[in-house]
Request: fold
Amino acid sequence: MLLLACGRWTHRQKALVTVVVEKACAGVPVRVDETVHGTVLARILATVLARVLAVGARLLLPVPLCLLLLCGSNRVLAAEALVAVAANFLPAARELAAAFEHSSGHKLVLSAGSTGKLYAQIVHGAPFEVLLAADQQRPLLLEQQGLALAGSRFTYARGRLVLFSPDPALVDAQASILRNAAAVGKLAIANPKIAPYGLAAQQAMQALGVYESLRGQLVQGENIAQTWQFVDSGNARLGLVARSQVQGSERGSHWVVPETLHAPIRQDAVLLTRGSSNAAASAFLQYLQGEQARAIIRNHGYDLERECRGREADSARCDPIEEEF
Reply:
């Protein structure tokens, strides 16, 4: 009967019993009432599994055999995780999710937005289980507020800011156009209050001494994706956008903004407390730190960092591994 039921489990039910299976197979006592929350069917299945697998553990059954009790394949244990993704990272996240799902059998549901808005949604109870932010501040705040698992935070990418125009002759190697307000027209940036790339854009203009002269010509996007749309559609002549958005394109002209002009755009990932018992969420964060994921991230125009986990993310050990653009 159990084997027949397995084939009809939803992703949510599989996720609910995964914790029970993993603990029982490892010989760890399982209290279903504390571990499993959800549908009556999931509770019944988890209770049966806990008892059956506890017997298997006492008999010292190897883990592969233990897992065979769940329809003979670890893919039946596939879970589903809800991942909040900073808008700039969505194209890379889609490729990462596809590769991760193919290799693990887990499923990821991505939801993109500005880091500030995603943070507000999480604080107000949004059911996300992983956050891929475009800064370090919000993941740290979530950790301090008890909404993210302490020690799970790490830097998965380092973003770069680019001044871009569809006009191939407009942006030179010195970004001289920024010093000629009359020639700039509209300049698109992300909202500095909620988007880390927007804050970096504001800091860069202030460092160059052009912010006040261009302030009245700024067009703000809600996030960096909308900012790119302003430039790409021609509604803005110039835009301070993410390098990942122009990576690999020969269109237009661009200038990579030196990091000395703004605070580094370190993008941190963190496991949210809602995902602390979700096998897919934990596995995805582990996958992000592997070579396959790092290659995908690099190919999307991001720099990588060597050792940026938790509080170390602010230390000198986090020197970027620069990539050619």
